[in-house]
Each structure stands twice: as C-alpha cells, then as structure tokens.
Amino acid sequence: MPISFPIPYSYTLTTLVFRYGEPSIRRIVPLALAMLSASNPKLEIIDTLSKLSHDSDSEVAHNAIFAMGIVGSGTNNARLANMLRQLAQYYHKDANNLFMVRLAQGLVHLGKGTLTLSPYHSDRMLMSRVAVGGLLGTLVAFMDVNNLIIGKSHYMLYHLVSAIQPRMLVTFNEDLKPLPVPVRVGQAVDVVGQAGKPKTITGFQTHTTPVLLAHGERAELGTNEYTPLTPVMEGFVILRKNEDMED
C-alpha cells in the first residue's frame, strides 16, 4: 500500500509553511493541499483554499482557486460549487482570476460527476504512477502560473488528462453485456488482521448498477446469484452466474 502522511498532519504542516514561509514558498501551499486531497473535498481544506483565494498575492489566489478545482474534481460538491460561483461574481472584472474560476468549475463537474483525478485505485491499495505524473506535471506548471498557465503555455493543463479515470462501478455478464445487479455501497472499513468474516463496509445503501463510488467508499454484491471475477468491486466488473446457488 502506498505510504502517505495522515491528512491532518500534512494539513497542519502546510499551514505552518504558509504562515512562516517566504512568498515563493507560500505560493505552492495551495498546490500541496490539492495534491494531498485530489478528488477528496475535506471541509478544512476547502475552507483554507477559500480563504487563500482572496489573498493579496495574485499567484497565491490563482493557485488556490485552481486547487479548489483539483480537490473537488468530479465530485459535484455543492459547497465547493457555490464557493466558485461567488468567486466568479467577485472576480468578474479580473480576467486572470476568472479564467482560474472557470477551470475550477469545469474540474468540479468533471464528466458530469462520473470521473475522478484521484491516483488511487484497486480499493486504494495501489497508486497509479501515470496519474501522479499527470497531477504533478500540471501543479509544477502552476509554480510559475503567470508565465506558463496565464501566459502562452496553457496547453500544459492537458497533463491532467492522464490522471482522469472513471469512478463508477459497471457490471457486465460474460458476454460483456450490461448486467444491472443490486450492490451495497458504504464507507470502507479496514478489516486487516481481524478474525472471522467482519463487515467490510458500514452505513451502506443498496443501489442497482451502474453506481458512483465516492472517495473512501466500497461496494459489494447484494445478491448471491452472481459472483465477480475480480476481488475488487470498482470500475468495470464481469460477473459469472453462481452455479452453486440453490433454486
């Protein structure tokens, strides 16, 4: 499993850097927060970025607005969308900041809420290096936002394409035809080392595929009629008829 710092510790560290760091260091704090929480709009990070979006340093404001888009990418987060609408009204006479707001709004509604920029997959056990490279390539370009993104190298935003992946669960039969089945979707529970067969999700709701999986959510089949050909229920899953099921 990828090694990462807990979000609260990393969040505290970045806020201290912003408070006591030099101007050139303060400008990358919003980008660091975006990298820590891509497609995972935590309340404290959203509020911090919202404050930084009104910073007196224009580069900090640019980076904070774009970071809001990365943090909420593909989530359709209502709170974040409302913040961006207010920013669009606030910066309606500032072309550069308005450009950043429009980028962030597009990212929040990425694929109408069916796509994500999170580099983790396979039940968050693996990390896509290609996705991390796409995120890093874009965020590094924002370290010189005035000369690159707002300047003539705005095409560097296309690095984000390599980080885009679907966050939906779609089930198919063995003939690769769509197969709607009931699934339970809830918050994932860490059951490593626990005896017996503990529940892997909590607070679940039952839906019929296809369904969307938010950050930290896990799905499991809600019927014994089919068995999945993969241990991880995310993305595109092929189901096989359960021959041992009693009529």
Q: Would you write up a description of this structure?
A:
This protein is an alpha+beta fold and 247 residues long. Helices cover 38% and strands 18% of the residues. It is built from 9 helices and 11 strands. A hairpin with a 4-residue loop joins strand 2 and strand 3. The protein is elongated, with a radius of gyration of 20 Å.
Short description:
The protein is α+β, with helices and mostly antiparallel strands and 247 residues long. The protein has nine helices and eleven strands.
Keywords:
single chain; alpha+beta; 4-stranded mixed β-sheet; 3-stranded antiparallel β-sheet; 38% helix
* Structural class by SSE content: alpha+beta
Number of helices: 9
Major sheet summary line: 4 strands, mixed
What's the average pLDDT? 84
Strand order of the largest sheet: 8-5-11-10
Instruction: Say how many strands there are.
Output: 11
Strand content: 15-25%
Give, in order, the helices and strands. Answer: HHHHHHHEEEHHEEEEEEEE
Secondary-structure map with pairings?
Elements: H1 7-20, H2 23-26, H3 29-36, H4 43-52, H5 58-71, H6 78-90, H7 95-108, E1 115-116, E2 120-121, E3 126-127, H8 129-141, H9 148-152, E4 165-166, E5 168-172, E6 182-188, E7 201-208, E8 211-212, E9 217-221, E10 226-228, E11 235-241
Parallel strand pairs: 5-11
Antiparallel strand pairs: 1-4, 2-3, 5-8, 6-7, 6-9, 10-11
Helix pairs in contact: 1-3, 3-5, 4-5, 5-7, 6-7
